[in-house]
Amino acid sequence: MDIHNIIKQFDFEGRLLRVKEFGSGHINTTYLASFDSGKDYVVQQVNSFVFKDVDALMNNVFAVTEALRSRITADGGEPDRETLHFIRTADGKPYVQTQDGRYFRAYIFVKDSVCYDKADSPALFARSGEAFGRFQQRLADFPAATLAETIPHFHDTPWRFDNELLPALHRATEAMRRSCQSEIAWLLSQRTRLDGITKLLRRGDIPLRVTHNDTKLNNVLFDKDSGRCLAVIDLDTVMPGSALYDFGDAVRYGANPAAEDEQDLRKVYLDLDYFKAYAQGYLKEAGASLNACEKDNLALSAWLMTTELALRFLTDYLNGSVYFKTAYPEHNLVRARAQIRLAQDMDGKMAAMQDIIAGL
Questions:
Q1: Structure confidence by residue, pLDDT tens digits, 335-345
Q2: Cα–Cα dist 235/192, whole Å
Q3: Helix boundaries (H) for 9-114
Q4: Which CATH superfamily is domain 3-111 in?
């Protein structure tokens, strides 16, 4: 079945003018379809190898975006620009399934928008904080427990330690373990700190919330003329969890000037100006909806999400690099070392980070 036959099954406005491949994503194949109604639509094949339960994934996406659209409309906003507007098929289904087992979904293309891979200033990073903070604030009353956990134990850091890292250590060869001896030792020494968020959820000190789980800068759309943040995109990993996961991972990714696979560890550190900028933007929008315990643990969440990713990179290295794409045999070890260095720098700046949060 070609893409034209896929397009015919969606409830689009107008007559199809043209369709072309679009974007540069590594997970999903994407097309841009233009219609004589003046609307453009993104038609995307969902990678069902990565996302096993497409029903659960799309049910999550539709539930969250429809709730966002309702809230944006009530606030007098622009629902077709401030969140993704997914389109159902002509018979009301959330996606098209082909006879050969492929899945396609569609949403309205947000025109006159742009996204960035890296924040070149604290001000831009602050605007991304506003976007994710607004996402959290608008979904503060959403019943998060009704969402499916499409990737079980995604941010259950103690579970990853016990059920992924330790078995990988036991399976690895002695030579492999020797090559990362200091990294293994550091992660083992942190085991008692890894339940910093999960125990708060378990005790009810912090609430279960809708979480995005991929809070990178390039998952925010900005208006190309005014520069204001418009919408949070890439909702495939939307799940129930903690707001701390999203805050911490955004800081981990955006407040470090170095790349995730930087080999010169002198370049890897937490930039406190960027941390403050993101926290300011995030709390400006989400602050009123967070409880005191969540605010008290924002700084810790950055350390915890960084340590978790170090654990995941090292686990994959020990397993022979079967999960993350790599460019060379030691790539995941290099990534793990960079994340460990960043976590250690965060540890040394924890008091300063907490002071920044308290001041905001």
A1: 999 999 999 99
A2: 32
A3: 54-74, 79-82
A4: Phosphorylase Kinase; domain 1 (3.30.200.20)
* C-beta pairs of 27-31 under 8 Å, 24+ apart in sequence: 27/236, 31/3
Taking 90 as the threshold, does the pLDDT of residue 27 lie above it? no
Domain 122-359, CATH among 3.90.1200.10, 3.30.1130.10, 3.40.50.2300, 3.10.180.10: 3.90.1200.10
Rounded-to-integer distance, Cα 207 and Cα 139, Å? 12
pLDDT tens sequence across 107-150: 999 999 999 988 999 999 999 999 999 999 999 999 999 999 98
Structure tokens at 51: 């996302």
Q: Give the Cα separation of 255 and 342 in Å (integer).
A: 10
What pLDDT is stored for residue 335 in this prediction? 98
Kindly indicate the confidence band of residue 91, based on its pLDDT and cuts at 50, 70 and 90. Answer: very high
Q: Which amino acid is at 172?
A: A
Compute the distance between CA of residue 165 and CA of residue 188 in angstroms, rounded to an integer. 10
Helices (H), the chain: 3-8, 54-74, 79-82, 122-138, 157-160, 166-171, 174-179, 181-189, 198-203, 243-254, 272-286, 292-296, 298-318, 331-348, 350-359
Tokens for 10?
Answer: 């969606």
Of 133, 147, 140, nearest in space to 240 by CA: 147
For residue 2, what pLDDT is reported? 86
